[in-house]
């Protein structure tokens, strides 16, 4: 193994350890607003497809409540979860456009 | 040489004929034929449950489980829907402020007609359910609409179903592409998975009737609406077809649609059509 490669590996390891050891930055209001906007947009798309999930609505409400209370870490986490849920429901609605036929009694 | 040409020609003709047959079959498969589909739907249940009398499917979980059936038969001596039925009868006969009654809005004075609902209204181009027709009747007579899910609406439909007990479901799909589209949309809604649980109506009522989901025994989809409206112990009260759809959606963690939305009207049309020939048994009682 060349010296350059060993050096690069060490550098990567140091960077990785530094990143892991560094305290996570607390989420700001701007982070929350951005995460909430993204979640809301995905939820709106799911509703447009007539396939909103109840956990999306409740998680979005939890994000708003945490954001209004100034707990932006919790608010961002909830908003991201709501976005993931909404995106899963969009995926479901899209794939079911054809997939439903597999279940049909013929 | 002549022989070889004859073989080539023969092969080509055979291939063309085969292609013609295949194309015809593809076209036939794409064409919606509700009557054939309804027959296949019914046969699926008749074959899956050969010991269940055909007319018994309208009794939902009781047709699937002997113990439950006995309990229900005893309960039917003093049925839990009786209060709603009496209230519905009285409401039906009570005139509106303008002196007219529900009987003025319906064919045959509203008696013994449940089996014809929902129907496809050619003028509106949409499916009209009994619940919708009742509220439209109220609006036409200057009255406020009732909630679609319970209380007065459940009482009125309970009475109308009772006057139709034993009559065979008789839903028509008129020769109108919009009616066929409504049927197809209802079918698609029925089989489409939704909600975080990734369930379709069919996941429970086609794939698993007779099986337990927690403490409940799942009802077959065949004839499931013939018993509407129902008294559900789980609800501690009466509920309409709208309530049933809304509850099913919530249970799969899907946000329910508005009562009497196009999708609910269409799925009611589909489910009622495939139950043609089975008797009305409503109002019903369910755990």
TrEMBL record, chain A:
Residues 1-26 form the signal peptide. The keyword Signal applies. It comes from the Bacteria. The keyword Signal applies. Keywords: Signal. This is SoxXA-binding protein SoxK. It comes from Bradyrhizobium iriomotense. The lineage of its organism: Bacteria, Pseudomonadati, Pseudomonadota, Alphaproteobacteria, Hyphomicrobiales.
UniProtKB/TrEMBL annotation, chain B:
It catalyses: L-cysteinyl-[SoxY protein] + thiosulfate + 2 Fe(III)-[cytochrome c] = S-sulfosulfanyl-L-cysteinyl-[SoxY protein] + 2 Fe(II)-[cytochrome c] + 2 H(+); S-sulfanyl-L-cysteinyl-[SoxY protein] + thiosulfate + 2 Fe(III)-[cytochrome c] = S-(2-sulfodisulfanyl)-L-cysteinyl-[SoxY protein] + 2 Fe(II)-[cytochrome c] + 2 H(+). Residues 181-287 form the Cytochrome c domain. InterPro entries: Cyt_c-like_dom, Cyt_c-like_dom_sf, SoxA. Keywords: Electron transport, Heme, Iron, Metal-binding, Periplasm, Signal, Transferase, Transport. Residues 1-28 form the signal peptide. Its EC number is 2.8.5.2. It comes from the Bacteria. It is an enzyme of class 2 (transferase). It is found in: Periplasm. Heterodimer of SoxA and SoxX. Belongs to the SoxA family. This is SoxAX cytochrome complex subunit A. It comes from Bradyrhizobium iriomotense.
């Amino acid at each position: 193994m060349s010296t350059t490669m060993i050096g690069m590996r060490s550098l990567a390891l140091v960077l990785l350890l530094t990143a892991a050891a560094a305290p996570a930055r607390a989420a700001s209001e701007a982070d929350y607003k951005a995460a909430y906007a993204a979640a809301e947009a995905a939820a709106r798309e799911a509703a447009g497809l007539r396939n909103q999930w109840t956990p999306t609505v409740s998680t979005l409400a939890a994000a708003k409540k945490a954001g209004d209370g100034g707990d932006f870490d919790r608010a961002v986490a909830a908003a991201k979860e709501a976005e993931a849920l909404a995106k899963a429901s969009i995926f479901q609605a899209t794939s079911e456009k054809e997939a439903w036929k597999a279940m049909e009694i013929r | 040489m002549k022989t070889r040409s004859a073989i080539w020609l023969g092969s080509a003709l055979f291939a063309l004929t085969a292609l013609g047959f295949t194309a015809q079959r593809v076209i036939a498969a794409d064409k919606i034929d509700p009557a054939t589909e309804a027959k296949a739907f019914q046969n699926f249940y008749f074959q899956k449950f050969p010991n269940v009398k055909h007319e018994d499917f309208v009794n939902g979980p009781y047709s699937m489980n002997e113990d439950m059936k006995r309990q229900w038969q005893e309960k039917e001596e003093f049925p839990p829907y009786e209060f709603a039925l009496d209230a519905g009868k009285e409401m039906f006969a009570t005139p509106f402020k303008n002196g007219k009654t529900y009987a003025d809005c319906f064919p045959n004075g509203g008696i013994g007609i449940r089996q014809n609902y929902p129907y496809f209204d050619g003028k509106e181009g949409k499916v009209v359910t009994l619940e919708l027709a009742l509220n439209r009747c109220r609006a036409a007579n200057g009255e406020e609409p009732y909630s679609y899910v319970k209380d007065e609406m459940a009482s009125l439909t309970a009475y109308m179903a009772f006057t139709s007990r034993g009559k065979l479901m008789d839903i028509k799909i008129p020769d109108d592409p919009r009616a066929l589209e409504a049927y197809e949309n209802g079918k698609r809604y029925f089989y489409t998975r939704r909600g975080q649980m990734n369930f379709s109506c069919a996941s429970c009522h086609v794939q698993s009737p007779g099986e337990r989901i927690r403490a409940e025994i799942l009802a077959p989809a065949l004839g499931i609406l013939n018993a509407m409206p129902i008294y559900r112990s789980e609800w501690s009260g009466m509920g309409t077809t709208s309530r049933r759809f809304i509850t099913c959606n919530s249970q799969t963690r899907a946000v329910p649609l508005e009562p009497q939305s196009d999708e609910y009207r269409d799925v009611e049309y589909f489910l009622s059509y495939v139950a043609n020939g089975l008797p009305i048994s409503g109002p019903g009682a369910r755990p």
